[in-house]
Amino acid sequence: MAASSKLLLLKSRTVDDKYATYHERSNNNTSCNLHFLKVIDHVAENIEEMTEFLCLSNNLSEISALIITSQRAVESLVKIISRIRNDWVVDTILAKPIFVVGPQTASMLSNHGFSDIRGEDSGNANELVKVILQDDLISHIQAEANQSNYLLFLTGRIRKDIIPTKLGENGVKFIEKIVYRTIETSNTLEKFQNLELSSKTNDWVVFFSTQGVDLIIDQIKQNALHENDQLKIASIGPTTSEALQKKGVICHVVTPKPNPSALFDAIFEYEERNCQQAKKFDCLCN
């Protein structure tokens, strides 16, 4: 096994991946190995139905704003817009306020022509709901105001209940539309095992969600129980951390926001607090 630490991100490596770029720029002289493991694939859904839905002028006029909390939903929305041949409809959609949970999603939307993007610094669903509820436009779509306007929440088939629950509790009208679904990537457990991660070399595993990772979670728990080999676990945001805890996995680090600097800084600070292990962990040293 290599002497240097491994940092495994349970996500696919995208073109110009911000986590890879941040790591490379910050750690040119270190021996840490950064790994990516794709655990889920995404399939667009209901594209034709949503195209027809948005092309109806009544529907379009009643949408006060959109909510998108994942890059996959952005990809589906882009596919929908590409099918619309009416320039006025496209321009109207692009001009709508759109609430997002992180900078990467905001950047994708901006690159595709959206200009009124809100909440990109919220970092997680709980904070995004606060941003939405404090926005001036919400007063126009409160359920008791007897208005026809609403928020359009574009989401996946599997999603957390935080946003729908909080909006409902505060009397905010919204319509939820599923625009993609997730499927587990094959051979993830085998690929995970082949990395030979170990606490002895101070390796880390970073969870971005709990979708498609049940076998990996079982393996981590088994190693900790039978081999006394407890890997360091990091979670992107509190929602994922809470879901992991319910599955019996405790996170050593929970990032406040879903971006590279928040992740690497949080791990570095954890290692600084545990100086006896920090000597082994050279991944984040400049």
UniProtKB/TrEMBL annotation:
One term of GO molecular function: uroporphyrinogen-III synthase activity
Pfam family for this entry, one: HEM4
Matching Gene3D superfamilies: 3.40.50.10090
One of the protein's GO biological processes: uroporphyrinogen III biosynthetic process
InterPro entries: 4pyrrol_syn_uPrphyn_synt_sf, 4pyrrol_synth_uPrphyn_synth, UROS/Hem4
Gene Ontology cellular component annotations, sorted alphabetically: cytosol
Source superkingdom: Eukaryota
CDD domains, A to Z: HemD (cd06578)
Annotated ranges, domain Tetrapyrrole biosynthesis uroporphyrinogen III synthase: 40-264
Protein name: Uroporphyrinogen-III synthase
Species classification: Eukaryota, Fungi, Dikarya, Ascomycota, Saccharomycotina
